[in-house]
Amino acid sequence: MRIVAWAVLLLSACSGGDDLVISDPWVRAMPPGSGMTAAYFEVTNRTGHDQTIVAASSEAFGLVEIHRTITADGISRMQQEDTVVVGPGETIRFEPHGRHLMLMRPRGTVEPGQVIAFDLQLDEGRTVSFTAAVRHPSD
Amino acid sequence: MSVPLRILAAALALFAVLAGAFTAYRMQSAGMVAPEDIDATIFSATRPVPQFALTDHNDEAFDPQRLQGHWSLLFFGFTQCPDVCPTTLNTLARSLALLGDLPASRRPEVVMISVDPERDTVTRLRDYVPFFDPTFVGVTGATAEIDALTAALGVAHQKIPRDDGDYTVDHTASIFLIDPTGRQAALFSPPLEAADLAARYRATISYLESRR
Questions:
Q1: Is some CB atom of chain A closer than 8 A to the CB atom of B156?
Q2: CATH code for position A60
Q3: Would you call A72 an interface residue with chain B, using a CB distance cutoff of 8 Å?
Q4: Nearest Cα to A73, choosing from B190, B45, B158, B74?
């Protein structure tokens, strides 16, 4: 039990410590025939000042960008976001039909059961790392 | 306004309210749904779908004949789409599962028509579409045919170049309901959620069937 508790503590340390916390991360399994997919999660800022995400990356993809789907008048558009500012105490959701990490140029398959590591770069030069399990969208 | 006129106006207003309530009660007891209570754009007169000649993901011809004899839900998307298309196709798969109790004649066939025919070959659609549900049909074809169909249905789609030379496509995210005579019957606009979409579909086809 104690070992599990330490493991949980270590894992949460990997998820960015106590200041910028990533929760519920997941990656949509890449449908065959598509060369891209998306990652979703929630990010909570537990510090007393703004935290600004300026980029995201993953060894598993040649290119990762922060995008937001905007649907207006029935038409969906994607808008790239250069920065995402998470205010003190704020939680920002990366979710289907909303903000997401657009994952392009996969270096391998992206199938259920895999776990993919991501880095979020902050404007102050720090990196927040987290891992996300790949899920079939129907799971 | 004089007093008798006011009484007359009040009486008329009361009559209108009672008549409305009575009609609503009769429709409800007959299992009918008022179109204004359905979260869908129901076309007042069904509109024919224009002629088109496309190809499905099994390399079979896909033309207006393929829309005959069953309800269809048409979604316009593309395979190189990271968020909206896979999310919507998954919503459609979940909705379809929730409609499993309907007889086959009332269950919809789900069709994704590509708005990126340049990249979406038959082979690519054969890989992509069944990932979401083995019964889904993927459709592609000549750009001119896709453009004519989307223009006739009022589906917007526009190629957006990216800085890296690639491109993405902005497109209508609504779902089109085609009736068993192959005519446009209704439109389901986003936001689309599986249980809600299944309920909207049931209410819409019940209303349209009662109108026939």
A1: yes
A2: 2.60.40.1890
A3: no
A4: B190
